[in-house]
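Quick illustration, no need to memorize.
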Amino acid sequence: MSKAPSMPMYWDSYIADTTHLVTEEHGAYLLLLAAMWRRDGSVPDDDKDIARIVGLSLSKWLKVRARLGTMLQTDGKRLTQKKLQEIWKSTQERIEKNKQNGSLGGRPKANQNNDEAKANGYVLDNPNETIPEPEPLKEEKQSITDSQYGAETDNQTAFKEAVSAQSKLGRSRLKKATAWSLWQRLSKQHGEDRLLAAYLRYLATDADAKRDGGAYQSGLQVWLKEKSDQWLEQGVRRSRPVDVDTIRAMIKTRDATPSFAWPEDRLGMTESEARKMIA
């Protein structure tokens, strides 16, 4: 078996695919993907052998396999991950083509190997099944413009909603690049839903507190840097981001139907907090 090239790994998409897994299951899945990559994109569909590869007892591996479900595919003889196998084949085709060009006396293009981080055979495909990886965002220097949103990640959608909530309260002075950098770091730790819920709670609860240390003068980035920890401790994680229009609709329903139960868990705020936010 030839030495495998480096396996590309795209963590944003990986995490999006595996939010239902616990730590032990993550470890087993990653070890299995690595073994597949080193073994031509698949491994023998032998549970005893796979249990040894991932460092689990047979009984534990069978439980983990059930949790991985349709992320793995088998023909009865070999076990693989569909996208990983496609990338492996594409990589091998490129490597073989380069070898053939070399044997025919061909010369690589001048810029082919200029990028030391991406050798021949490197592929940009995503080894997971979900959305393609967006262009990487630079930490501090790249600005975030409205034209970038479109069909993007949940994290960018949540960030845009936070910016919109600040703007609707008349606080639009915002360094988006700085705020985005902070948002990325915190959302990786806590999840974008929980982070957005905490910020909306902050706006709703303190909307009439003008003496709040001038934090509103600089907006979202100051909250992310200085206040997010205390509000994240109080926050309630929601199933998806909720915008101001949704909150208004909930209040309208509540006013029209007093028996309607206020969805505090979903919105991440009490009814009184929501009413303050849209007042």
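Confidence is low (pLDDT under 50) at residues 115-135, 137-151, 207-218, 235-241.
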